[in-house]
Design goal:
The chain has 303 residues and is of the alpha/beta class. The protein has ten helices and eight strands. The chain is 43% helix and 14% strand.
């Protein structure tokens, strides 16, 4: 049987460890030539180390795969061009992008600083845009390609102390849908995955209460390698799928909803603030969404 990504060239950002590493390894085992991108920084984006990316490259080469390391940052347009350029320079094409690179700078909203906001938005949202935009021209010209973006239920549903991260991750879901719509005519697909997996990033989330500790204990059961099969499948031509949002929790793959009208009210002669208060809001209230967060919605134990 032909490997699913035979002959394809894939860029995986943030691939020096965790989910990105597992995707890069599996993509290579499925025949892809891989650009392993990672700046080797801390979760806050500090410190640079070429070691993590090169270590993954060495693993891939160790089982006979082809890969090159890249340590450019996704957070600037010029360096994102160099990441995509590494694929073109070494392998002559680019068929897939996995936008996985990320950092955390968690802070309760009223204490969040502008640098904390900017840093997370730049890496996650701008990074996904810069890399995707750099690759899109090549994919358009060759008439094929696939994007897989890592979103999060922190953005899709909500979470405490992550306004920067949540805003970026929900923005990525909208970016993916726009790419899917705009690039469909060129046979280019775009999908999102909200991964549940124990990694360096989730390991940094505070766990002060018994409930938070129990939630993190559940996270520890969900290893990064569980996310890789879906990501690699979505990169392959056999997956005729675009514009979708999935979640992966251990051995479970979930198709996530996307915002659609829930309920409406109509006033033939228009609304006044008083009528909105007296009629519209009470009529809609039964369909309001609660102030829940990811852990409230995904409340069952992963299997």
């Amino acid at each position: 049987m032909t490997a699913m990504l035979e002959g394809k060239v894939v860029v995986v950002t943030g691939a020096g460890g965790g989910i990105g590493r597992e995707i890069a390894l599996l993509a290579a085992r499925q025949g892809a030539r891989v650009v392993v991108n990672d700046i080797g920084a801390s979760l806050s984006g500090e410190g640079l180390d070429a070691g993590p990316a090169q270590a993954v490259v060495n693993e891939i080469r160790g089982f006979g795969g082809e890969a090159v390391a890249n340590t450019d940052s996704v957070s600037e347009a010029a360096s994102a061009q160099r990441i995509v350029g590494a694929a073109m320079d070494h392998f002559g094409r680019i068929d897939g992008v996995v936008n996985n690179a990320g950092i955390l700078r968690d802070r309760i909203f009223h204490k969040m600083s502008e640098p904390e906001w900017d840093a997370v938005i730049k890496v996650h949202l701008y990074g996904a845009y810069y890399i995707s935009r750099a690759a899109a021209t090549h994919m358009k010209e060759q008439g094929s390609g696939a994007f897989v973006h890592m979103t999060s239920t922190s953005g899709l549903i909500g979470n405490f102390g992550q306004a920067n991260y949540s805003a970026a991750k929900l923005g990525i879901a909208a970016l993916s849908k726009s790419i899917a719509l705009d690039m469909q005519r060129f046979n280019v697909r775009s999908n999102c995955i909200a991964p549940f997996a124990w990694s360096r990033m989730t390991g940094s989330v505070p766990a002060d209460t018994p409930e938070e500790k129990a939630r993190l204990a559940r996270f520890q059961q969900m290893t990064p390698d569980k996310v890789a099969p879906l990501a690699v499948t979505l990169l392959g031509d056999q997956a005729d799928t675009s514009g979708q949002i999935f979640a992966v929790r251990n051995n479970e793959i979930v198709l996530m909803s996307q915002p659609r009208p829930v309920r409406s009210v109509h006033q033939s002669d228009g609304w006044t603030p008083e009528r909105v208060l007296e009629h519209a809001l009470p009529a809609l209230r039964a369909s309001y969404h609660p102030l829940d967060r990811s852990g409230d919605v995904f409340c069952w134990d992963p299997v």
